[in-house]
Amino acid sequence: MAGDPQDELFMEAFELMDRAVILLDEGERVVLANPRAQLDYGVAVGVAWRDIVGETELVDWRKIFSRTTIERTFYTDIERIGVAVRVFACARSGGGVMLSLQTVPLGLNAEARLRAYERVLARYGVGLWQLELPSGKLRWSPACFDLIGIPAGPISTEAYLERVHPEDQDRIGAAMNAASTGQGEYAPCFRVPQDDGRVHHLQDRSEILARGPDGMPLFAVGATLDRTAMVMLENERDQLLNRLSRIEQLSVAGRLASSVAHDLNNVLTVVLANCELLKEDADPDAAASLEDVLTAGRHAAELASRLLDVARRAPLKPVDVELQPFLKQRMGFLGSLVPETVTMTIDDGAPGVWIRVDPQRFQQAVYNLVLNAGQAARATVHLEMAATDVDVRLSVIDDGPGIRQEVRDRIFEPFFSTRENGTGLGLASVEGIVEQHGGTIVVTSTHEQGSSFTITLPRAAPGAPAVAPPRPTQERHQTVWVVEDHRLLRVVVGRILGGAGYHWETFADPERALQRLQAGDLPPDLLLTDVMMAPLTGPELVAAAKVIHPELPVLYMSGHAKGLLTETGVVPNVTLLNKPFTSETLLEAVAHILQ
């Protein structure tokens, strides 16, 4: 070593050196280190070299120290990940070693680097490959063989293309030809069927590294990416977007349906109620014709109700119902749901069996099942009943071609439909209605032998047969105010109430009814009001009326769902008469409140 360490000139140079310089004593402890050594390697005076390099590397360093003692000076490189430490060691005259250290990039050859990259990328589903275009020599990393699903070994372009999905082979071949002649980028997506039945979705990307004097590609490297999980996510995203689009379409349809439902149900109420009134005094032939009109009107009302039920699940109004008479009374209407070429039958099983259901909602579920069965049936649709001590089963059976297993697995899924124009909401709504009643529904099907949808509900104790309220001939003293902006509906409601002996008065304008109350007129015994009106809605009229007469009994009538009443701030536990209604249901509702 030139100069004495205590020499000021030497120390100045020592401090300014761009390499790390370290002096170790015979005990391998640091006695001096310049700033570069402290900055680059964390060397500090007084620290043992063992603590700086660690036990594992200390073996290599002691070999360097030994060679330095023998040769006096020694030069070598110690490789690290991606870099090398260039070491110059010199024996000190008083014992110990002086080290000069410099970090330089590690000059790994291309082959070694490629292997390292292959191992890292394989963890993320990426394989690397090299292609010599003139010779066609192809080299794959192990991950490529895993992605294609073949054992590692020599591979040719022809053998590779044979593994590609037949529908993608021509496209891959064309992309290869374009890339090999410099006419296009090679970045195709393709499928590779696996021996276990799965399909890998892959994508290639390449880069030309060498070209000939004529500009033609000579050597290319590329990567194969496993896109299987990504494709699955993209498919799920597309399905969700499709469902969202359908939901938006249904929402628009629902708003449109709601906008016309009010007038439609008003008209149907007028038709049904007047037919009932006329039928009472009609001769047999006219009564039969009127019954046909009633059946058609009920069918139209049911269609409107099914459309409105798309966007809501109304609270149940359960009553005890005897199953067999309930269904047989509706056989005429149920039969109208199936094609004329299909015969519909109902058995006499489970007589005297009762269930507790909301008649309108349960009827809707049965209608949907019969409608579906009629569309699938070849010749017959059969309703079958059975009962145990605890439950009741109703099966709707058709003799159609049956339902495939993959369809059965999703048949109650909302928005799933095998029909081109189907909404996928019919059976989903049936399942919802059944579950609301505490029951279950299952489907069984046999190829070419038909299908059976079975509803199971809790059995109820026998109840009293429903009896229509007698039409009084004597004068009643209760007064009913009818607030309805549809003229024909006001007229028919008045006729029904008058025929039952009630005093009644109608109002086309809700503000006029409110003015009468504000003027001090005696309030009616019952306020029967429509929901959708202008300039005041029914709930707004009731809220203002109850400021004057808080105990005023109210009966709403509407062709809309109860949601409107909630949105306008009225508590949902109101009494609501759904349009279209019959004279019987109207009088039952009125009598229930006035009793």
Key terms:
single chain; 595 residues; alpha+beta; seven-stranded mixed β-sheet; five-stranded antiparallel β-sheet; 19 helices; elongated
Structure description:
With 595 residues, the chain is of the alpha+beta class. The protein has 19 helices and 22 strands. Strands 11, 12, 13, 14, 15, 16 and 17 form a seven-stranded mixed β-sheet that branches. Strands 2-1-5-4-3 form a five-stranded antiparallel β-sheet. β14 (380-387) and β15 form a beta hairpin. α8 (228-281) packs antiparallel against α9 (284-308) and α16 (510-518) runs parallel beside α17 (538-548). The N and C termini lie far apart (120 Å). Mean pLDDT is 82; it is low at 466-474 and 566-571.
**Rg for CA atoms:** 44 Å
Strand content: 15-25%
Query: Tally of extended strands?
Result: 22
User: Which sheet architecture does the biggest sheet show?
Assistant: 7 strands, mixed
Q: Please report the number of helical segments.
A: 19
Task: Kindly report how far apart the N and C termini lie.
Answer: 120 Å
The structure class reads alpha+beta
What is the 3D form? elongated
- Helix content bin: 40-55%
What value does the average pLDDT take? 82
Low-pLDDT stretches: 466-474, 566-571
